[in-house]
Amino acid sequence: MSQSEGENKHKYDQRLITDLKEYVEKRIKLFSLSVAEQLSLMMALTIQKFIGVAFFVGAMLFVSFSLAFLIGDLLDSLSAGFAIVSIPMFLLGYIFFRKKSTRFTEHFQAKFIEKTIYRFEKDDDKSSNGG
After folding, report:
1. CA distances (Å), 119 to each of 22, 31, 42, 112, in order?
2. What is the pLDDT of residue 69?
3. What's the start-to-end Cα distance of the chain, in Å?
């Protein structure tokens, strides 16, 4: 092999290494952007759900007060009305507090990973097709 061929091969190897480094850096950046996009989407959905739950809780609070006053009126004992309305709420609260929800957590994590990988593969397909 002549010296010029060796020099050309060295330049080609250097360019290949540079391109490979650049490719890896761009893939890491793409992955981090995909994760950031998924996190921001989940945060927006969480805030929306939280606001919906807050309105629902407020409505349920007014309904329970109304029901307690109604039952209290029927029984001629306001405290009995509130006690009767609070018993099912207490039982439901106790059940939800004691129950461990690993299934929900695992489902949430699996969905997040699935969406991130799907987005990553979709972006990879676009880049390999020249789109």
Report:
1. 21, 9, 14, 11
2. 95
3. 41
What sign results for the dihedral spanned by CA atoms 25, 34, 116, 50?
Answer: positive
pTM: 0.51
- Judge contact between 90 and 9, C-beta under 8 A: no
| Residue-number span of the structural domain to which 17 is assigned | 3-121
CA–CA separation, 10 vs 29, rounded Å?
A: 28
Structure-block tokens of residue 117 = 């990988």
Number of folded domains that form the chain = 1
Residues 20-79 have pLDDT tens digits of 999 999 998 888 888 888 888 888 888 999 999 999 999 999 999 999 999 999 999 999
Q: What span, in angstroms and rounded, lies between the C-alpha atoms of 94 and 88?
A: 10
Q: Identify the CA nearest to 71 among candidates 59, 88, 93.
A: 88
pLDDT at 33: 83
